[in-house]
Here is the input.
Amino acid sequence: MRIKNLLQSLGPGLLFAGAAVGVSHLVYSTRAGANYGFGLLWLVLVANLFKYPFFEFGPRYAAATGESLLKGYQRLGNWVLVLFVFITLGTMFTVQAAVTIVTASLAAHLFGGFDLMVWVGILLTTCSALLLVGRYNLLDHLMKFIIITLTIVTLITVFIAFSNVQTAIDWTQQFPMEGVGLTFVIAFMGWMPAPMDLSVWHSLWALEKQKNTASDFNLKKSLFDFNVGYIGTTILAFFFVALGALVMYNSGTEFSPKGAVFAKQLIDLYISNLGNGAGLFVGMAAFITMFSTTITCLDALPRSMARAHSLLANKASTFNLETTKEANLRIDEILDSISNKEGSKEQQIIETPRKYYLGWLFVLVLGSLVILNLFLTNMASFLIVATTLSFLTAPFFAIANYILVMRYLPKAEQPSTGIKALSWVGIVYLFVFCGIYIWNLL
Here is the structure.
């Protein structure tokens, strides 16, 4: 019963894990192990440690104020929210296309029958239909099964891989800081553990969890939920690096840039340790994991753009669904007291986010299809573009999130002194690596 209650109390944190444990883990972590052995473990630790505060600020701000980070950005000035919209427009299609093409590649390898772009269309159509029918509750329940399944399978596989090692493991850390090596490091950090705008998604999911749960999803529970998901994704990243290092490093085999070939190589990593009998099971686990990332991104990107669209469209209104926490507690009374007459301003504000959501969902699907038609021939190069864009935009989210929690949260609900210090180190880390990358491009 305690385990059941624990699982029921979790939600946005596992959605975070579902979005994170995708390209960054299945693709980049295994590739890091295959190319550098255990030499990039430092990078997994640094990326997860220094990004931690800025992801944590999403659920912290939502639980403490009753509003999303997007409303917070608007409080800093409409220009901040507009900047978020432009950044998201610059990355959303590549993000969605990247996770979808990896999922489609796995589907093509496992099930066959269709061309890769046909699988892309099937996946985007299926995920869109599920979101329109099930919405948040579907994601909440689906993710618990997916993350637990993947974790168990990966733990078993890595344990077997370690037990089969015949030679001493080289733990020497490597620091590739130029050329192809630096490009890979920046791309790896871009999505390790996830793109930084996932902090915005998390704040929106936290509000949905609060709305859909009978218990009080307060600050303490929200942060516990986040930490479970975040620590879990960090541990899994180490496991995927180990898997690539133990099976492919110095083997003479390199991951292919072609999606279908890469999918086969990825599944073969598991099969070589667990045996052919586990091939279908492991392949399905990998596919379900990427499917979860695809559907999670397909929900979160339109959700965040719809909310930003709604806030900007109604910025002059004195009535807004995302007001202060106290105002949210009175909202039902307000709605009960107003006229249900069609066309009332309050009712329009309630309905427009759903209308905007559908519009942005369509735009995202269409844009992703266009992007994939342009970059389909080389999945590796396309993923590098998507992840690098995410890393170069990370400083914006880091600074904006830090200012929000320090300016608008009461002292009792602000992060600890240690987290504040880690935030400053994290901001320096993001700017330094962005600077190094830009310098090498010149």
Observations:
- Residues 316-352 have pLDDT under 50 and may be disordered.
- The CA atoms of residues 213 and 354 lie 20 Å apart.
